[in-house]
Every structure is written in structure tokens, then in C-alpha cells.
Amino acid sequence: DIQLTQSPSSLSASVGDRVTITCRASQGIGYALAWFQQKPGRAPKSLIYAASSLQNGVPSKFSGSGSGTDFTLTISSLQPEDFATYYCQHYTDYPFTFGGGTEVELK
Amino acid sequence: EVQLVESGGGLVQPGGSLRLSCATSGFTFNDHFMDWVRQAPGKGLEWVGRIAPRSNSYTTFYSASVRGRFTISRDDSQNSLFLQMNSLETEDTAVYYCAMSPRGRGPCEHWGQGTLVTVSS
């Protein structure tokens, strides 16, 4: 099975900061990576698919990049509504797996 | 508007069974891959499994942790997804989400609100 390792597991940031989260796959997955945002008590929300394609309605402050084994999610200017936990997920081969999550907290 | 509504969660004893349902609307259900994803209290997301549409022979895929105990099925006439869970263990305690992939076998992009399953004696 393909393992996804996210780093950091948590980070503290201020409003306006640029934040970068990384996701590393245990083997190459091409561009078959998605990013999700989850707030406490809520279902996950899809942000990005195919490593860098933004979902409809997701603000352009979110961006994704990478291919193969190394991927990043960047939030260009953190806003109060962005404090949440972020997960990557691959969908190249079954079983699909999620990364362990990155909690973005207010500094 | 795509809507997914899970039901059927509750308290069950170890070794017991439970069947979750997911009622859907707002899209052509029989065209889409559907997933179940779970989240244990205070933990991350865990992919449980997927069922393909009829065009892909209703093929099912499972994580190793549930294979042989859980069964995913669908009723296209009712636009509904199901998760039959047998031989439940305390480690199966989680919120269970159903989710839909709008892009073939790609990731799920629409999610229900989840239903809580608690396995405890």
C-alpha cells in the first residue's frame, strides 16, 4: 500500500502568513493527489485534485504543486477561516490512503 | 445541489453488526464511484472502501482493516449507498462519511455530514 507522510503535523501561524504543507508518497503516484480541509465537527471539504487543480469555488489563495512523490499545499495569505486541519489523499491505486493531517493553528 | 445524507449509526457491542445507509440526490447516482471514509474520535481520515458504478461492474475495493468484515453495496433505483459492517471491533468506532467522486475513479469531492458508530460493551 502507498503511504502518505504529511509534514508538519501541526503548525502555528498568524493571519497574513504564507503557509506550506508537504505530502510525501512512499512511491510515485504521478499527479493523483487531492487535498482536503476539515474544520472541527464538519465533513472534509475538497480543495484540490490532480495535485494542482483548484476545485470550483475554492479561493485562489490555495495552490497545490508537485508530482511523483513530493507535493505541497500552499496558502498564500492565511485568513481566520483557514485555521483547520488539512489532509492529502492519493487515488492512484487501491487502497486509497490519506496523510496523517496537518493542523493549522492560530499563533 | 449534490446532497449525501448518512444514517444508521449508533451503539453496538463488539462482535455485532450494523448497516449504514447514504441517501443521495442532486446528481446521477448510477454514474458515479462512491466511497466510505471514517474518522475515529480525535484521529485522521481513513479510507474504508469504494464501489464502482454499473459501467464498472459494481466492483468493490476495501482497506485491509475492514476487508472481509465490511461490505459496500448500492441500490441505483433508490440512489442509495450502503455499508454492512459485521464482526465490529472497538477500533471501528468512528464517524462514517459517504462521499462521491464526480470525476470517474478520481477522489471524492462531495461528502455527507457523517454518522457516528460506537462499538462498546
Describe the overall structure.
- The complex is a heterodimer of chains A (about 110) and B (about 120).
- In chain A, strand 7 (about 60-65) and strand 8 (about 70-75) form a beta hairpin.
- Helices cover about 0% and strands about 50% of the residues of chain A.
- Chain A is mainly beta.
- Chain B has strands at about 5, 10, 20-25, 35-40, 45-50, 60, 70-75, 80-85, 95-100, 110, 115-120.
- Chain B is globular and about 40 Å long.
- In chain B, the strands form two sheets. In chain B, strands 2, 4, 5, 6, 9, 10 and 11 form a seven-stranded mixed β-sheet that branches. A four-stranded antiparallel β-sheet of chain B has the order 1-3-8-7, with no helix packed on it.
- With about 120 residues, chain B is an all-beta fold.
- Helix content of chain B is about 0%, strand content about 50%.
- At the A-B interface, strand 4, strand 5 and strand 9 of A face strand 5 and strand 10 of B.
Summary?
The complex is a heterodimer of chains A (107) and B (121). Chain A is mostly beta strands and 107 residues long. Chain A has no helices and 10 strands.
> What proportion strand of chain B?
over 45%
Order of helices and strands of chain A: EEEEEEEEEE
How helix-rich are the residues of chain B, as a percent range?
under 10%
Q: The biggest beta sheet of chain A, please? A: 6 strands, mixed
H/E element sequence of chain B: EEEEEEEEEEE
Greatest contact between two chains: A-B, 24 and 24 residues
Described by the principal axes of the CA atoms, the overall outline of chain A is globular
Low-confidence stretches of chain A: none
Computed CA radius of gyration of chain B, to the nearest angstrom: 13 Å
